[in-house]
Amino acid sequence: MNNVFVYCEIEEGQVADVSLELLTKGRKLADDLKCELETIVIGHELKGVEKQVMPFGVDKVWVADDKRLYPYTTLPHTSILVKLFEEEKPQIALMGATSIGRDLGPRVSSALHSGLTADCTSLVIGDHEDKKNKKEYKDLLYQIRPAFGGNIVATIINPDCRPQMATVREGVMKKEIVSDAYKGKVKNIDVEKYVKPEDFVIKVIERHMEKSKVNIKNAGIIVAGGYGVGSKANFNLLTELAEVIGGEVGASRAAVDAGFASHERQIGQTGVTVRPKLYIACGISGQIQHTAGMEESAMVIAINTDKNAPINAFADYVITGDIAEVLPKMIKQYKEN
Ligand code: FAD
């Protein structure tokens, strides 16, 4: 009873990165709470899936394997999670803030009357004193997320309902293997006992998967452009620099909204979270909603005409100048060396 649970998403036999990130966080939370880490994988042809998750320090893997459970549809996944959580009574249940997690999380939490904090960027264990009702709570999950358009960071707690549920943004937590030799238990779920016939009213007839060619999430070098780049044509300078140094092109929301770059390149609170070795910010002012998605970069170079631009506070190197002058010089230098 009262363990930490992570719902693992699966796509074409592979556990999603966000789920592995959550298992890493879940292991730390379970250690802090001195309890076990459990995970549930729902889908089809899941033989051997435990080998993907065990190295992250999982003590028990629940597997619901049935051909009707892949691809994902809301109702059977909800029924399985609700029943499992009613039986196992986890104190914490986590899932990715993906399109699946955003669909599934609220349904499960409302069926369990537990509440849910969406889009968390950090999770820690802490105590709470309710002075009004003279109550003290130990070992609560602090669910931390930006609020009011990113202007504040809110810490949300759920003292009385269980499980404490949260969805967590992709890429904000690190993925770390505990040990390749980590051994947990595997428990197969008898799907028939967990689902109802009416859960299968929705039939997926055909799926079209659009595979993105853009991979900024895992890029080691990112050349990101903002509104200050000025035009779509000027973005070609960023593409050229990125090609020369083996990086990907990213963008601020203002640049995406202006049509300079596609949405899949957007970095920040409502875009992708990245942590490259090198982040070159070109014509980006550095508003909190943008820096929320890149502040973990190992090294930042900021190029901006404004020597007081907020991005400079995050930068290891600041180049005060016009990108139209600075970028061609950088491209030339890198090409020569
Ligand atoms: P600006 O703030 O306009 O900055 C342009 C910069 O370019 C300035 O610093 C200027 O000095 C510099 N500049 C101008 N000309 C040149 C030149 N020739 N050479 C060099 N520098 C030059 N933003 C995001 O990026 N990602 C998000 O995910 C995101 N989510 C949001 C969510 C919400 C709910 C809200 C309310 C906002 C969000 N935003 C997000 C928007 C964010 O608040 C800022 O508006 C946006 O990041 C600004 O983008 P920018 O820095 O490109 O543009």
Features:
about 325 residues, 7-stranded parallel beta sheet, 5-stranded parallel beta sheet, 9 helices, binds flavin-adenine dinucleotide
Summary, kept brief:
The protein has about 325 residues and is α/β, with parallel strands linked by helices. It contains 9 helices and 17 strands. Flavin-adenine dinucleotide (FAD) binds next to helix 7, helix 8, strand 16 and helix 9.
Describe the structure.
The protein is of the alpha/beta class and 337 residues long. The chain is built from 9 helices and 17 strands. It has a 7-stranded parallel β-sheet, sandwiched between helices. Helix 2 links the parallel strand 4 (37-43) and strand 5 (60-65). Helix 3 crosses helix 4 (99-112) and helix 6 (232-245) packs parallel to helix 9. The chain starts with a strand and ends with a helix. The protein binds flavin-adenine dinucleotide. Flavin-adenine dinucleotide (FAD) binds at residues 149-150, 226-228, 230, 252-255, 266, 268-271, 283-285, 287, 289-290, 293, 303-306, 309, 322-324. Flavin-adenine dinucleotide binds at residues 149-150, 226-228, 230, 252-255, 266, 268-271, 283-285, 287, 289-290, 293, 303-306, 309, 322-324.
